[in-house]
């Protein structure tokens, strides 16, 4: 890596905070290390704790472009890496003058002009600072992991017709996973690892305060503690940070300035999205309905 | 103190010994990472190690315990926390013996300090306080070693709860949501304090007897290899939280396995349609997806106390995996058998189900001690039709029938009728056939597996489906 994006863990934390991502020490240090060691960063944790946000924040904080590869079942090389523009190739063949030699046409249609870059190749070829986000890697098939391994270890790709493309400048790679499937040991070995759990109450309060202007600190505190209690119940879908923020906005919009039983009862649907979860919460917290 | 390199290699070796798979490459990464951060900032150092050597959240607790031992926060009493001779920890009575903690004004003063810290949630202050408290109460005179019990019994932080709640909930109605939320906050802080004390005690012991020895005593195995039977209450909770992610992981792996299986029958229509693009030449053939084979599952589960923790997890997991089976029926037995499927209706509350199961199901015939023979007989009488040639039969239990009868012929006929039959035994293999265990006598009729932790359970379920 030619120029460092962050000077120190503290610098990383500060600059992420500038773009309104409140990182705790562990997050800041890990992001700094990923950049300093030039290693991909694998971020795991429950849904809605800010894994994808982190990638966006890193991009924003460093003025890099964010390239995103969303993984899904059936994602293949053509979608992730590159493919040739088949229709354009057909057109070129049909439009070629009749007296042109086949060999010439053939060389022509497998050139740069007909290459469709997909996120991975795009990230490697860019000469400006880049953050490559490989989102929900656990959703992709095992084969894709193999391809990622190859690319992430050397940051180069071989395209048979064009030769090997090496990274001009290593992108900052961030891989997220909800751990629906255990990623392979080989991939984990090559990455730095960060587990993002639900934040400590203080940090979550600060996040709410940063995201929802106009909310009283005391209400935010109360809100965050209540959400923490909800997460402790054994429920199907624990509230995420985004839902805490939504809740704060809801309370603000309704003009409620105290989070008592009645207020929680009225707005519980904002944070709990299963009937059985709501029933459980109502029972455990003694909500009157 | 040994050099930094020795510290590092010792630390990594101990992580491996504790069950964390740290590869050589990861060890080297750790060194590189450590060089990139400020070594004097202990939390940065911790983050650097964690990012490079811990790749599973379940391993984090083990890592933290070991990290605190290898890179202790302080040496001896620690800077700034030394005992103040002006401020004795205990009041001595006329004979020079300490006054009981409850009557001791010095102890009471310390409790006030602690309550103050718990109320404000000042983590750094709490950490400092824990260090001093261990120095003061962690070792009674004449004792060789350090104990957290001394600190916790002198200060008894749990008993501060009423006072803490009182000071937050002033004027508000008790028993409501506010109290519940506050109670949780303080419970967390008190637990945090106990954790700090335990860590501090470990550090003191390590200073006296060496880091390696302490590590070997202090470190619990990682969650997925933790024995169901030997789990503490907190670990039980953590294990239960693991069940859903585990089930999801298994389910997606099972689906994937099916998808990668052989292709199904030729889809004639789609193949012909696709051939139109290539002038009627079927270049690519299309196949119907293979219909996944979905077994029916019948679980027969020993619910007696000796195996209840194990039964709990297996049942939770089985029901979390419901989509993988076309039908799941569960039966529990102690010395009689009852069907418990209804407690696990889709959408039901799992914790509630386990409680209701214990309260309502008709499992006890006479003694309330496991009687496999009678339990199987009852099962065969009442639910004979549950086991068919499409069924995978799963029996869970330690095969300890209190020297009662075994009903081997019934089990044999059940195993013969079922498509597959397995027995999961939560006892270590070495204890099979000792005492009243009939492990190998049942094991002759159907394959018996040792299943004591999440790893073994996951491996088995994968084989089953």
Automatic annotation (TrEMBL), chain A:
Gene Ontology molecular function: any one: ATP binding
InterPro entries from the UniProt entry: AAA+_ATPase, ATPase_dyneun-rel_AAA, CbbQ/NirQ/NorQ/GpvN, P-loop_NTPase
Taxonomic lineage: Bacteria, Bacillati, Actinomycetota, Actinomycetes, Streptosporangiales
SMART domains reported for this sequence: AAA (SM00382)
Domain AAA+ ATPase span(s) in chain numbering: 37-202
Gene3D superfamilies for the chain: P-loop containing nucleotide triphosphate hydrolases
Species name: Actinomadura citrea
Protein name: MoxR-like ATPase
PANTHER family for the chain: MAGNESIUM-CHELATASE SUBUNIT CHLD, MOXR FAMILY PROTEIN
From TrEMBL, chain B:
InterPro entries: UCP010256, Uncharacterised_CoxE
Biased composition (Basic and acidic residues): 83-97
Chain residue ranges for the region called Disordered: 79-105
Protein name: VWA domain-containing protein
């Amino acid at each position: 890596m030619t120029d460092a994006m962050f000077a120190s863990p503290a610098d990383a934390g500060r600059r992420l905070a500038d773009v309104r991502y409140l990182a705790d020490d562990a997050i800041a240090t890990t992001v700094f290390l990923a950049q300093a060691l030039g290693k991909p960063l694998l971020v795991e944790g429950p849904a809605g704790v800010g894994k994808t946000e982190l990638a966006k924040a890193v991009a924003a904080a460093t003025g890099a472009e964010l390239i995103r590869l969303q993984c899904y079942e059936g994602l293949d090389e053509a979608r992730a890496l590159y493919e040739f523009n088949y229709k354009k190739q057909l057109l070129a063949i049909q439009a070629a003058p009749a007296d042109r030699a086949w060999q010439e046409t053939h060389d022509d249609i497998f050139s740069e002009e007909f290459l469709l870059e997909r996120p991975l190749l795009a990230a490697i070829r860019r000469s400006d600072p880049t953050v490559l986000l490989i989102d929900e890697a656990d959703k992709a098939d095992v084969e894709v992991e193999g391809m990622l391994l190859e690319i992430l270890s050397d940051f180069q790709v071989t395209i048979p017709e064009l030769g090997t493309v090496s990274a001009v400048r290593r992108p900052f790679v961030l891989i997220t996973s909800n751990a629906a499937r255990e990623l392979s040991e080989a991939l984990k070995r090559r990455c730095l690892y960060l587990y993002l759990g639900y934040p400590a109450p203080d940090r979550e309060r600060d996040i709410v305060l940063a995201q929802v202007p106009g909310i009283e600190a005391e209400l935010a505190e109360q809100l965050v503690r209540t959400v923490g209690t909800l997460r402790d119940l054994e429920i199907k879908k624990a509230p995420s940070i985004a839902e805490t923020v939504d809740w704060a906005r809801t309370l603000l919009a309704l003009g409620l300035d105290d989070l008592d039983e009645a207020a929680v009862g009225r707005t519980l649907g904002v944070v709990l999205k299963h009937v059985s979860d709501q029933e459980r919460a109502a029972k455990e917290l003694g909500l009157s309905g | 103190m040994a050099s930094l390199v020795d510290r590092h290699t010792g630390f990594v070796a101990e992580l491996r010994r504790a069950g964390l798979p740290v590869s050589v490459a990861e060890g080297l990464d750790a060194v590189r990472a450590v060089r990139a951060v400020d070594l004097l900032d202990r939390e940065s150092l911790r983050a650097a190690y964690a990012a490079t050597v811990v790749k599973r959240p379940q391993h984090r607790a083990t890592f933290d315990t070991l990290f605190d031992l290898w890179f202790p926060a302080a040496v001896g009493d620690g800077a700034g926390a030394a005992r103040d001779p002006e401020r004795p920890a205990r009041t001595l009575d006329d004979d020079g013996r300490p006054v009981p903690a409850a009557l001791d004004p010095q102890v009471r003063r310390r409790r006030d300090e602690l309550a103050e810290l718990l109320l404000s949630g000042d983590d750094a202050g709490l950490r400092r306080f824990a260090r001093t408290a261990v120095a003061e109460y962690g070792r009674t005179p004449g004792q060789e070693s350090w104990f957290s019990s001394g600190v916790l019994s002198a200060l008894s932080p749990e008993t501060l709860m009423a006072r803490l709640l009182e000071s937050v909930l002033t004027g508000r109605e008790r028993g409501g949501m506010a109290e519940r939320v506050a109670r949780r906050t303080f419970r967390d802080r008190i637990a945090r304090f106990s954790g700090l004390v335990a860590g501090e005690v470990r550090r003191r012991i390590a200073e006296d007897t060496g880091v390696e020895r302490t590590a070997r005593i202090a470190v619990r195995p990682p969650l997925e290899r933790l024995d169901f039977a030997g789990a503490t209450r907190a670990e039980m909770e953590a294990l239960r939280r693991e069940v859903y992610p585990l089930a999801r992981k298994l389910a997606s792996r099972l689906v994937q396995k099916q998808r990668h299986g052989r292709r199904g029958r030729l889809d004639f229509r789609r193949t012909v349609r696709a051939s139109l693009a290539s002038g009627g030449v079927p270049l690519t053939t299309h196949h119907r997806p293979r219909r996944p084979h979905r077994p029916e599952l019948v679980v027969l589960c020993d619910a007696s106390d000796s195996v209840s923790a194990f039964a709990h997890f297996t049942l939770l997991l089985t029901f979390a995996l419901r989509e993988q089976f076309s039908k799941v029926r569960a039966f529990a037995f102690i010395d009689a058998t009852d069907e418990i499927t209804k407690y696990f209706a889709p959408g039901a509350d799992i914790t509630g189900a386990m409680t209701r199961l214990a309260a309502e199901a008709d499992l006890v015939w006479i003694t309330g001690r496991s009687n496999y023979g009678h339990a199987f007989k009852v099962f065969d009488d009442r639910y004979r039709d549950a086991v068919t040639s499409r069924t995978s039969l799963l029996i869970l239990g330690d095969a300890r029938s209190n020297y009662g009868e075994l009903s081997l012929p019934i089990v044999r006929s059940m195993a013969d009728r079922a498509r597959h039959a397995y027995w999961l035994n939560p006892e270590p293999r070495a204890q099979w056939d000792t005492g009243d265990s009939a492990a190998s006598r049942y094991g002759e009729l159907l394959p018996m597996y040792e299943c004591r932790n999440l790893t073994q359970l996951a491996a088995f379920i994968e084989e089953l489906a």
